[in-house]
Write a structure and sequence with these properties.
The chain is α/β, with parallel strands linked by helices and 244 residues long. The protein has helices spanning 19-40, 44-56, 59-66, 84-92, 105-117, 156-166, 183-197, 207-215; strands spanning 73-78, 96-102, 123-127, 139-145, 167-178, 220-225, 234-240. Helix 1 packs across helix 4 (84-92). The radius of gyration is 18 Å and the shape is globular.
Length: 244
C-alpha cells in the first residue's frame, strides 16, 4: 500500500518544504490510502458502506482520533466492523501492531482479506463477542468507535472493567459514541442505525453517565463533541490511565 510519502520533510531539490505544502501532501496521501482501503473490499455493498462510513468519520475526525494513538505499540480496535479504521491507522504507521475484534464473522473475514490485499502485516482480526474476548497481554491503546450503543446496556460497566485490565498503565482508551441529545440529532442517528441493525437494542448513553463509568475504572477522562456537517451527536471520550 502506498502510504508514507507524505511525511517527507523536504522538497525534491532539498529545500525545506512549507507547512502548507506538507499538509497538502499528507492530505493527498491519506485520501489515496482511503481509496485503496475502500477498493480492497470485495463486494460493491461493502465498498459503498465503507465510503459512507469514511464520509461520516471523515479526515478531520480521523486526524482527531489518530493523534491520540501511539506511533508504535499494541493497539486494540473493539467492534472493528470491516476494519476500516484499523486498516487506515495501521497503514499510516507500520510500527503499530493492531488487533481488531468484531462479532460479525463475515466482516472479520473481509477485514483479514483486505489487510492481506493491502500488504499490511501489522493488523489482524478475530471474530468474537467483545464481552467474551480476553487477552493476557496489555495494550498501549484501545479504541471503540460506535460500539457502546450496540452493547446490552447492563453489560457496559462490566465490559469497561474488562477493558481497563487490558490497557497498560499510562495507556489510553478512546471511545467515540453517540449522545442521547439533542433529540433531533439522536433521532437522525437512530433512524440510520435502525436501517443497519433492525430492532436490536440500542442505547445512546448520556455522555456524563458514560464518562462516570469510565472514570470509575480509574481513567482520567476528557470528552468533547465532534461537530459534523450531518446532524450526528458524536462524542469523543479520551481516557488515560495513570502510570503505576
Ligand atoms: C456501527 S458498527 C462500527 C464498526 C466500526 N467500529 C466502524 O467505526 O466502522 C458497530 C460494530 O460493532 C459490532 N458489535 C456489536 N456488538 C458487538 C459485540 N458484542 N462484540 C463484538 N462486536 C460487536 C458490530 O458487529 C458492528 O460491526
Amino acid at each position: 500500500m502506498s502510504s508514507q510519502d507524505a511525511s517527507a520533510p523536504s522538497s525534491p531539490n532539498g529545500a525545506p518544504e512549507s507547512p502548507a505544502k506538507a499538509d497538502a501532501k499528507r492530505t493527498a496521501s491519506a485520501r489515496r490510502m482511503i481509496r485503496e482501503i475502500v477498493a480492497s473490499f470485495d463486494s460493491l455493498v461493502t465498498r459503498l458502506y465503507s465510503k459512507i462510513r469514511f464520509t461520516i468519520l471523515r479526515q478531520p475526525f480521523l486526524d482527531e482520533i489518530g493523534q491520540y494513538l501511539p506511533k508504535k505499540g499494541r493497539i486494540l480496535d473493539l467492534g472493528c466492523g470491516f476494519g476500516l479504521f484499523s486498516l487506515y491507522f495501521a497503514a499510516l504507521e507500520k510500527e503499530r501492531d493492531f488487533i481488531g475484534i468484531d462479532l460479525n464473522a463475515k466482516r472479520i473475514e473481509q477485514a483479514n482479506r483486505s489487510a492481506e490485499k493491502l500488504g499490511l502485516t501489522n493488523v489482524r482480526y478475530q471474530a468474537m463477542d467483545v464481552l467474551d474476548w480476553s487477552s493476557d497481554d496489555t495494550f498501549d491503546a484501545i479504541y471503540f468507535l460506535d460500539l457502546v450503543h450496540h452493547l446490552p446496556a447492563d453489560f457496559v460497566p462490566e465490559f469497561l472493567q474488562k477493558v481497563r485490565k487490558l490497557v497498560r498503565p499510562g495507556g489510553i482508551l478512546i471511545i467515540k459514541d453517540v449522545a442521547d441529545k439533542p433529540y433531533f440529532k439522536m433521532l437522525f442517528t437512530l433512524i440510520l442505525d435502525r436501517l443497519m441493525v433492525g430492532m436490536e437494542p440500542i442505547r445512546y448513553w448520556p455522555p456524563s453517565e458514560l464518562q462516570s463509568l469510565v472514570e470509575a475504572q480509574g481513567f482520567k477522562v476528557v470528552r468533547h463533541k465532534m461537530i459534523d456537517i450531518l446532524p450526528y451527536p458524536h462524542i469523543l471520550y479520551v481516557a488515560r490511565l495513570p502510570e503505576e
